[in-house]
Amino acid sequence: MSFYKTLVRPLLFQLNAETAHHFAVEGCRWASVVPGIIHVTRLCLESHDPVLGTEVAGLRFRHPIGLAAGWDKSGRALRMLDAMGLGAIEIGSVSARSSQGNPKPRLFRLPEEHAVIVNYGLPNEGADAVASRVASYRGRVPIGINIVKTNDGPHAPACDADEILSDYERSARLLHSHADYLMLNLSCPNAKGGRSFFAEPGNIERLLQRLQPMQLQVPVFLKLAPHDEPAQLDSLLMQCDRFEFVRGFCFNLPSTKPKMSVAPESLVDKPGAVAGRPVASLINGCIAELYRRMDRERYAIIGAGGVFTAQDAYDKIRLGASFVQIYTAMIYEGPAITKRICLGLAELLKRDGHSSVTQAVGSAHE
Ligand SMILES: Cc1cc2nc3c(=O)[nH]c(=O)nc-3n(C[C@H](O)[C@H](O)[C@H](O)COP(=O)(O)O)c2cc1C
């Protein structure tokens, strides 16, 4: 049993899920100023195996397991996260203006399912605050910044296309020079003004047109609603084609609840999207279909959704993901999960005769 599972998790799980999340982020933020903590954390949680070193969209990663967006929404805990042995850290989603997100309660645990229901609605401190915080940060791990349209709350009037596009443009302008990559979240399942707008043909292209004059020096990834319909994926790829800065994709959570067997109905009926184990197979199907259709020389897939073990990560890599992200596993298993996945993944790669992660990417299609 790990230190996290015996001591930390029981304490955090006494609190409601959002309060526990808040304490975890602030705990990391404040712990990082205690002398020696960063060093000890590194010693305990970092792992090094050359077989895991990889390159995606021109970025070098020590290994292919990173933190997904939504844990450190405003880049408050970067120093500690940097010491936790992650392959990359994606902060956000950050919006042009700060947002309170949706009314509380808005995060629920489903321990029997290894899942959570999330209805945060993108609370964050806004692009100005995040830009000034991350500007002074010099870490060892690549940082992705995930950008989204500001959520003005459930009762805000609908905004027009220009407002939506300007919101993304402003955040990208403020944040791109502080990031190793940008992730455009076009698919938040629980806020107005995003997912449905980008489902309309041509709107992704309009956004990319807005960003083009910035001459972005960092690769841009698009976080999409999960779908595996060939026509929709082909339309997406056509819209991205002429924008060279677009280097890949990630799938967000489905807005409808996946099949779950044991979670109590009272919880399953809560508003929000399910993250964790129950979404893994749906997202794996999307990764496989996109990998079949995309130009693999140019694009890479970042796979997130229900990764708890080395085998889960390996499955996503074999289906076509070049990099894998975790979130819900951090809640249930704690930060040592990254090292455990890395050790297991290195063994799986070697068992199957792969000398690198890149060699294994898409190998299920051969
Ligand atoms: C509590 C919570 C908050 C999240 N917030 C965001 C967010 O702000 N932006 C985003 O792009 N994804 C967000 N996500 C989605 C994750 O980045 C990830 O895509 C998803 O949780 C699947 O990974 P998992 O099954 O390992 O949790 C959030 C997920 C959770 C659980």
TrEMBL record:
The keyword Membrane applies. Its cofactor is FMN. Keywords: Flavoprotein, FMN, Membrane, Oxidoreductase, Pyrimidine biosynthesis. Coiled coil: none annotated. Its EC number is 1.3.5.2. The keyword Electron transport does not apply. Pathway: Pyrimidine metabolism; UMP biosynthesis via de novo pathway. Residues 52-349 form the Dihydroorotate dehydrogenase catalytic domain. GO terms for molecular function: dihydroorotate dehydrogenase (quinone) activity. This is Dihydroorotate dehydrogenase (quinone). It comes from Rhodopirellula halodulae.
